[in-house]
Amino acid sequence: MSRQTATPNLGKTTGPRLSLLAGASGIALCLVAGFSARAWAQDASQEEEIIVTAQKREQRLQDVPLSVQALGAETLDRQNVNDLEGSFALLPSVSTAPLGPGAGQVYMRGIVDGGDGNFSGASPSVAVYLDDQPVTSIGRVLNVYGADVSRIEALAGPQGTLYGGSSQAGTLRIITNQPRRGEFDYRLDAGASTTHDGSESGRLEGMLNIPLGERAALRLVGYAAREGGYIDNVPATQTFYSTVVNNAAFVEDDFNTSEVVGARAALGIDLNDNWSVTARVLHQRQTDSGVWDHDPEAVGDLQVRRFFPDTGEDEFTQAALTVNGTVGSVDLVYAASYLDRQVDFELDYSAYALSPTSYIPYYTCPSYDRTDPACGDPRIRFAGRSNYKTWTHELRFQTDPTKRVSMIGGLFYQDPEHDYDNQWHIPGIIAGRGVNSNPTGFITGAAADAYFITRQVRQDTERALFGELTFLATDTISITLGARAFETESTLKGIVGTVFSSSPRVDLATSQDGVVRKGSLSWQPNDDLLFYATYSEGFRPGGNNRRAGLTIPVTYQSDLLRNYEFGWKTTWADGRLVLNGAVFQMDWEDFQITRFDPAESLIGLTANAGDARIRGIETTIGWRPIERLSIDGGLSILNAELVTRYPRSLLLPERAPAGSELPFVPEFSGNINVRYDFTLGETDAYVQGGLRYRGESFNDIVVANRDIQDAYTILNLATGVERERYGVKLFVDNVTDERAELYRNAVDFDERITTNRPRTIGVALTVRR
After folding, report:
1. pLDDT score recorded for residue 589
2. The dihedral of CA 656, 661, 662, 666: what is its sign?
3. For residue 439, what are the domain limits?
4. pLDDT score at 28
5. Whether 454 contacts 424, CB under 8 Å
6. Per-residue exposure over 617-631, b if at least 16 CB sit within 10 Å of its own CB, e if not
7. Domain harbouring 706, CATH code
8. CA–CA separation, 305 vs 309, rounded Å?
9. 759, 195 in Cβ contact below 8 A?
10. Nearest CA among 591, 580, 606 for reference residue 644
11. SS3 (DSSP) at 350
């Protein structure tokens, strides 16, 4: 591979950034000077009681016999978390392989093979819920902006009985604030920040809760935010075969920017004393430019060389309806939602042309030989369009949980459709070799310079009957048995191929049914102690390959996760110390993995590859050692490895032997946050610091290909003042300007490294009723 020549970065102007920050700080100081309301009353000597709905009913966190971590609105605000992806750093059991905002994978408890993300491949192992509705999607997390969010719940371990397919390794739930009857309320949040050697960021959020008589309320939320860039696309030339090209038209400093705008409206109505209805609609549009990875080894710190624009737009609307009622002593809930999501993106894919295994010379060289001096420009532009449409319905009932025997159960139906059109373009393609020239006549409608196309519609329907029965054996011991009988159907229709494909049409279907189970024994001697032992199962549905490989069939089966867990929820020292945790072993059977292997096929295929085992411990702590001093943290220790070898095929050597570590699984990760509250006259004030550590991990499951992703530590600091209606915060994120290796790309023929935002200094303002 020839090397590119880059022009050194000559630096950037910092004046506008400092002016913006100084102006925002001046506004903050004026607000502080104008405070006249009395200080907030707070009891800093005890841990805050957190209410969660992890078991689909309201419970104290300390009463839930599950490994649950809840990030409340106050925690999210203190840690400057504005979206789902931002919360991952506060959840030690979560690991990621990010490519940019909303683009990447999320994993829990080490259940990761590194091969998912392909739209035609395996489903995610972690389900994402927005309130009561699943919004899980392959390859792209629905990155909901965090305005007016009540909390984010992370349910670690299989949640198959209550949450179904793709809740195999865990479930992430975004819980929004609901309309409050009889109460007028408002809130306004604004923030501005500047990033070292980058550009400015800013956000504005507003909420209005309006009572409509005694039985109804309307809650309105709006937001707009811009994340400034910090990656430079630097001048470069590249020799592709016999052609020399430059990227002068695309050179730009701080070119990785992201903007999001959105609004949410929720109407809550109490029909009578027993029945209520809540209707909600959320619309959000996110637009991105540039890339969030850099190439420090070949180009320079926070620098890349790109030869086509990188752009993206992710726009979605979700409508949801929830009906709550009571019949006799039984509570009923009907939850329905519809998600319509459109994702469009363009990427520079030129690095693939330099791969020795690529077939690009077929399209740019008259003689099909890359050494031919007549070869044309083989740069590649990858353009994708995806439309997700998902209907979800759930009807469930619940009996009185205080009775000796209680039950929760119901019916579930989900019908997600993913219509996508991915095209790879070579502007210098030789006439007659584009995909539209395929002699079969099946491939039509592609651009003239498209050499490969995947245009398909994928549906993964799930129907389920689920339930959990709890028996109070004594006043302190309870037994829970649960099961979910499911039926899944996966269809894949469309076309895939090139001008050389003999049978590009795909029309496949597969179905499967089964049962996943759960059993739990818990002992709660008092309100401060809870111990539980659980066996639970989780699954991902099977699916279809676009084609069969040499040894890979056209369909693949569901994979199963069996979890054995012992956990504890404990409160000590009159509520000043909370210690929760769990130890577990998870056996992952016939795990699915999607890989591109030219020895098997010219497209990515999915297979049930083997078995793995994950052993671990996870704990969280909340401690108030003295009045006004709070210490919170969590850690995860994991050992995740293959139990059986991962074969490349029946004919070729293995990819990874038994005992190989799974990718993206740090052996140790953790975080700790310390805050001290004090008073300045009549004003409450605080200082806080947060430290996050993530150990090293591999970036691929294939031993011959993988590299180590280095460990990293991030330090954040903040200080602020608060009064009844106002709050001002000054913060410094990534104080040491650490370059974290969030993801070292091993699959896209371009080994760039996704990194975090450099040191950022900012101010945040809050005004509320």
Report:
1. 95
2. negative
3. 5-383+410-768
4. 37
5. no
6. ebbbbbbbeeeeebe
7. 2.40.170.20
8. 11
9. yes
10. 591
11. helix
